Amino acid sequence: MEQQLILAVGECDAENEIICVPETVNELFELPFVGGVNRTILLIALAAIIVVALLYFGIVRQKSRLIPSKFGAFVESLVSFVRDEIAIGIIGPEHGLKYFPWLLSVFLFVLVGNLFEVTPFINFPITSRIAIPAFLALLTWVIFVVSGFKEQGFGYLKESLFPPGVPKPLYLLVTPIEFVSTFLVRPFSLAVRLFANLVAGHVMLSLLLVSGWVFISAQGGIAKIPIGFGWFALGIGIFVFEIIVAMLQAYIFTLLSAVYVQTSVHPEH
C-alpha cells in the first residue's frame, strides 16, 4: 500500500518517517528579525494600535464632520451596540455607562485578535494563546468581585454564598457549589471558552488548507489534484465560518463579562 507523506519540515527522512515533525515549533511564534520579541507580543501590540485607531478615526475625527463617513458610521454602530445592548442592556442605565469603556475595549480587542485568524499574512488569532484569554478573564473576575464588594460591602459574600430562600440545612451543599461556581468556574470557563473555540478553528482551517496544498502539489499523478481542490473548497467554507465565530466569540466574552458585573451590582437579580 502506498503511504502518504506529509512534510512538516524542510528536511525529512521520507523512507522511515510518514509524518515529519519539526524539532521545535518556536518559529510559529518567534520573529528572528526582532530580538527578544515574539510573534504574539507583536500581534498584541498591533491589535491595541488597531483598536485605538478605530476609535480615533471612527469617533474622535468624525466629530468635526457634519455627516459621518461610512467608516465613521460603522465604528459608531459598534460603539452604540456595546453601549446600548451590552452595557446598558445587561448591567442597567445606572451602572452600565460606568463599565462601558471597559466593555468596549474588551470587545474590540478580542474582536481584532480573533480576526487575525483570517487576516492574510497573519493567520494567527492571538486569543488562541491561553495566556491572553486567561488574563482578560482574570481582569473580568477582579472587576466583578471588586464591584460586588463596593456596592454591597461584605454582604456580597452573604448574597453570593447564602442565597435567600434556600432552607438552612441545604447551605451545606449550596454554599460550596456557589463558591466554586462564582469565584472559580466563572473566570476559568470564560477563558477556556474563548481559547478553545479559536484554537479549534485555527487548527481546522490550517489543516484543510495545508492538506489541500499537499495533495495538489504532490507527485504521483493528477488523481490527487481533485482531492486537493476539495480540501481547499472545504477550507474556504471554514474560512467564512471562522469570521462568524470570531465576531460571535468577542460578543459572548463581552456579554458574559457584563452579566457577571450585573450579578455583583444587582444582587436581587
Search tags:
globular; disordered N terminus; 269 residues; 7 helices
Question: Explain this structure to me?
Answer:
With 269 residues, the protein is mainly alpha-helical. The chain has a domain at 39-146 and 189-265. It has seven helices and no strands. It has helices at 39-60, 70-91, 93-115, 131-152, 155-161, 171-217, 224-265. Helix 1 crosses helix 2 (70-91), helix 1 packs across helix 3 (93-115) and helix 2 packs across helix 7 (224-265). The longest helix has 47 residues, at 171-217. The radius of gyration is 24 Å and the shape is globular. The model is unreliable at 1-10 (pLDDT under 50).
Summarize the structure.
This protein is mainly α and 269 residues long.
The average pLDDT is 83
Helix content: 55-70%
Shape: globular
| Helix and strand element order | HHHHHHH
**Uncertain ranges:** 1-10
Largest sheet: none
Structural topology:
Blueprint: H1 39-60, H2 70-91, H3 93-115, H4 131-152, H5 155-161, H6 171-217, H7 224-265
Helix pairs in contact: 1-2, 1-3, 2-3, 2-7, 3-7, 4-6, 4-7, 6-7
